[in-house]
Structures are given as C-alpha cells and as structure tokens.
What we know:
By secondary structure, this protein is of the alpha/beta class. It contains 11 helices and 14 strands.
Amino acid sequence: MTEVLTVDHLQKRFGQFQALKDISLTIHAGEVFGFIGPNGAGKSTTIRTLLGILRPTAGHATIFGLDAWRDAVKIHRRLAYVPGDVNLWPNLTGGEVIDFLLRLNGQQHSARTDALIQQFELDPAKKARTYSKGNRQKVALIAAFSSDAELYIFDEPTSGLDPLMEEVFQQQVLALKQAGKSVLLSSHILSEVERMCDRIAIIRQGTIIEVGSLSEMRQLSRSTVHVTTQQPLAAIADWPTVHQFTASTPTQAVFAVDAEAMGQVMATLSQLGIVALTTTPPTLEDLFLRYYNSEAGHDDESLR
C-alpha cells in the first residue's frame, strides 16, 4: 500500500520538557487513521510537527515522500487542516473567510461549498466576530471539506459542535473515505474514532503505546457477559480467563471473559442450561482505559 505519511521515532523537546518521546506511525492512501489520547498526551504537538510549524528535536516525518519540515510549503498545497480552536478574521463574514481559505489552497467556491454550508447550518453572511466557537469550527470544516486535497488532518475538529453537527462531520469523513482520500483524525471522543477509523494509534505522555486496527485491538480486550442459567454458575467463577465475576443469585451473574476463552465459556454455560444471555464486545473506550492504566502501572482488576 502507498504510504501517504510516515513518522519515524519523532521527538520534540521544549527546554527541559520532553513533549514527544517516541512517535512512529504510518498512514496509507485511502485510510482513515485515528490518533487518540487525552488532552496533553502530545497529539497536537505531533500534528504541528507534521505541518512544519514545529521543528522536531529528533527523528523525522515525511508526507507524500517530502520532508515535513523542509518541504512544508509544497506539502500544504496538497492537504487540508482543521485545528481544534479556530481563529478567524473578525471583520470578514463567514462566507468571505471560507472563500479566502479556499483561494489560499488554489481552490474555488463551488456547489459543494454551498451544500456544506447548508448541511452545517452556517449563516455565511454574519461577521466572524459574532460567531461562537462551534460556528468558527464550522467555517474551517466547510473550507476543508470543500477542498480537493490528498490528505485531511483534523485535530479535535468537533470541539464546540453540537451532536447533530458531529454527525454531519462524521458523514463527511466517511464520504472522504469512500472517495479514497487519506485522513488523520486526532480526537479524545472515542465513539467518533470507533465509527470512522480503519486503524488507530494510542498515545500516552508523548509515546505511541499501540497501533493497529480496532479488530486487532479488540482481541486483546474482554467481552462482558450477562447470563442466567438453570444450574449454579460457581464452577466458572474462579477460571483464570473469567474476570470481575459478580453473582446476584447462584444462577445469575455478570463477568468479563478473555476473547480467546469465549468458546469454552459458552460451552460450559450451555451445559449449565442457559435461560438468558447477552454478550457485549469491548468498545474503544474499554481498550483505551485498559491500555492507559496498564501502561501507567495501574492494571487493577477493575480494568482487566
């Protein structure tokens, strides 16, 4: 697969503070790549380094085969970027800002721009100084989605948007994916990443601690089982692959089970006579919490 973006052991230091310790990842053509971690983990610093705004202390990054620092101007002609906090020219209207941003990238206002303005419910005639944070985000998103770029970089792009507008954003990203575009989405909204991304990277304190597809990572987590049986469930309570076993009655319990042991557990439950059963696969949030706590040395039983 063609590599659109490659980061190799990237580091960034601000004085004595090591903001990025070891960042390595690759984004392929046509891939939506999620970059997740809480505020302060290093997501925005990584993106600013990729955009050539910050010069790396060590390591390097390439976009379209070009050096992210030396060839930043060439790279910017081929990508669209939306930060998490958009500042606009206060005396221009929203429509004028959108057109100006498009012209900066050699693009023009089109029918797609008008459609996006309607979908995001933006009043383009108002001055930018009157806009809320959410409306400022809409202006940048409309300009980005109107652009015919090869790579779209979104850094916490839905900050300030209401749930309906978040849905519009997700629809537009999925449309980019269908069109074969590449997307780097930095977010701490796990449901957003879970719905759209092909692969994700989890960052903690300036270090990438895991990269992979959601299905690959789900194999490392556990499903939750709610079950009622005809015979007592005590036989499985002490299995090493069963965790957080909580019984409300001898024949009714909730517990977590390792993915590789699910077949064995189901076979045993069947022998005990299943009356009611529901299983819930692990969510990205489950994975996120588990990775973070295990890496921090707090992999207690509540998160296993």
